[in-house]
Design goal:
By secondary structure, this protein is mostly helical. The protein has a single domain, classed as 3 helical TM bundles of succinate and fumarate reductases (Up-down Bundle). The chain contains 12 helices and no strands. α2 crosses α5 and α11 packs antiparallel against α12.
Length: 241
Amino acid sequence: MFIFNSSIGKKFIQAVSGAFLFIFLLLHATINFFSVIDSFTGKWSAVAADEALFSKGDGLFKLGCDFMSTPVISIMVPILALGFLIHIGYGCWLTWQNVQARGGWKRYEVASKAATDSWSAKNMFLLGIVILGVIFFHLTHFWAKMQLPEMFGIGTYENNPYLLLELTFGRWWVLCIYLLWFVALWFHLVHGFWSMFQTVGWNGTIWFKRVKVIGVIVASLIVLMFVATALNAFVQANFLG
C-alpha cells in the first residue's frame, strides 16, 4: 500500500500517531497538575489522610483520577496509548530502515534546513529511546500500583493517589531521573509538533514559523505541568508531610 511503502505515507503514520502522543500527554499532565492546585487549596493533606478518599476533602486530583476510571475515558485512554505505542514502534522501524538504506549509522534524515539546524531533529531516535526507557520505570510506580491491580488483580492496589505521588517523588534520585526524562520529552515534543504539521502540508513560510512557536508553547506547557507535579510531591513528602 502507498501509505506503508512511500516516504510520505510513512511520515504520515508517524504524524498521526504523534498526535495521539500529544493528546495523551496533555490529558495526563493536566490530571497530574490538579495535585499541585490541591496543595495550594489545602485539599492535598485532607485527602491524603483519608484512605477511603470519600470525605469532603476530596481534591481535584482525586476527582481527576476518578474521571480517568469512567467508561468513556477507560475506552479512550487505551486507544491513545495504542497510538503512542505505534508511534514508538514505527519510529524505531523507520530508523532501522534508514540505517540499512545508508549502509551504516547516520542521523535521521530531515527534509528542511530548519530541521537540520535543530539538535532535537538530529537526535529524535536517541531521545525516543531515553523516553521509552523511563516509561517502563514510570509504569512500575503508578500503572503497576493502580490500573494493573484494578484491571487484572495483579499486585497490591494503592487507593490513595496523593500518597503514591509522595512515595514516588519523595526520593531525590527518582525525582532527578524524572526531571531528566522531562527534559528529553520537551526536546522530542518541540521537534515532533512542527514536524507533524509539516508532514500534513503546513510548511509555508509564514505558518511554519507560527507552528514552531506554538509547538514550543504546547511542549513547554505539558512538561512544566509534569515538572510542577513532581517537585510539588517532593516538597509534600519531605517538608510538609
